[in-house]
Amino acid sequence: MSVCVWLGSRPIHVSVEDVNEFSPEWKEETYVAEVTEGRLEKQILQLDAADADGSETFSKICHYHLLTPDVPFELRDDGMI
Question: CA-based, 20 to 30 A from 63: which of 26, 36, 48, 78?
């Protein structure tokens, strides 16, 4: 399952991977953040997905993946760009 993230005027596609029974769902349909070109930011945008596997332990998202190649952003395991 993937979502489109708009960072400035550039669309970035991100997928989420889960290993349990239920598929993850994004909290938002689209994520948008303004970025200033040439400025280094530690945190730009928090992505958030969850699934219905019951307990907090089993509903954890395993991995977020950047699908758009060659982007000047890093995506952490916790969904922070």
Answer: 36
